[in-house]
UniProtKB/TrEMBL annotation:
Pfam families given in the database record: Ras
Record family assignment: Belongs to the small GTPase superfamily. Rab family.
Name of the protein: Uncharacterized protein
Species the sequence originates in: Meloidogyne enterolobii (Root-knot nematode worm)
One BP annotation, GO: phagosome-lysosome fusion
Keywords: GTP-binding, Nucleotide-binding
GO CC entries: late endosome; lysosome; phagocytic vesicle
Length: 124
């Protein structure tokens, strides 16, 4: 079997969303993966996981998207979730200055675990 789809490159990426509780991480993921949006708030307990498959420039890409809880009591679990992440999306609420200020601490926590070669060049 030599079909074009079986010969395409495949790529799997781990993406995590970080931010304070209630900023919309779950809503962003639901909109992206399921093309649905809900105004109902339901807190994520620990971590949730969704998968999105797509083709980008002829490459079959599978995104494993991790939706982390923003509650402080779950932040200690973070390092286990961050390991092996290819992408980190920092999320804040436009109407909440405290959620924007908290982005720096989420960024710093991710950098400690992911250990990039030059954390000063990590975009924010």
């Amino acid at each position: 079997m030599n079909s074009a789809s079986s010969q395409r490159k495949k790529l799997t990426l781990k993406v995590i969303l970080l931010g304070e509780s209630g900023v919309g991480k779950t809503s962003i993921i639901n909109r992206f993966v399921n093309k649905k949006f809900s105004n109902c708030y339901k807190a994520t307990i620990g971590v949730d996981f969704m998968k999105k498959q797509m083709t980008v420039d002829g490459v079959d890409v599978t995104l494993h998207i991790w939706d982390t809880a923003g509650f402080e009591k779950y932040q200690s679990l973070g390092s286990a979730y961050y390991r092996g992440a290819d992408c980190c999306v920092l999320v804040y609420d436009l109407t909440s200055a405290p959620s924007f200020r908290a982005i720096e601490s989420w960024r710093d926590e991710f950098l400690v675990v992911s250990n990039p070669s030059d954390p000063d060049d990590f975009p924010l």
